[in-house]
Write a structure and sequence with these properties.
Helix content: 25-40%
CATH class: Alpha Beta
Structural class: alpha/beta
Order of helices and strands: EHEHEHEEH
Radius of gyration: 13 Å
Number of domains: 1
CATH superfamily: Glutaredoxin
CATH topology: Glutaredoxin
Largest sheet: 5 strands, mixed
């Protein structure tokens, strides 16, 4: 399953009312650190397919959502469960950190 592209238009249906927990990568094409995080996000998407929804939101093209959540630096990864932020990671972090955050959410859900 490929990553979901989140937008201002599909935010509510894809993230806030998702039956699965959601990991959102706030990024922009010009952001070099974002390109360092992208492969890790793609790996998380493959490894946790069916357990967590993973997607990206381009902050330049979707300023309403980025503004609503106060995204001041990218990459920022927000983790949602039942429409609420339950965790976050800002900047380039090791994949293990992201896996720990996903694992914690999945343990709390079960």
């Amino acid at each position: 399953m490929s990553e979901v592209i989140f937008t201002d238009q599909n935010w509510e249906s894809e993230v806030l009312t998702s039956a699965l927990p959601v990991m959102v990568d706030f990024w922009a094409p010009w952001c070099a650190p974002c390109s360092m995080v992208a492969p890790m996000v793609e790996e998380i998407n493959r490894e946790y397919e069916g357990k967590i929804k993973v997607g990206k939101l381009n902050v330049d093209e979707n300023p309403a959502v980025a503004g609503k959540y106060g995204i001041m630096s990218i990459p920022t990864l927000l983790f949602f469960q039942d429409g609420k932020i339950v965790d976050r990671a800002i900047g380039v972090v090791p994949k293990e950190v992201l896996e720990q955050k996903v694992g914690k959410i999945l343990r709390e859900e079960s």
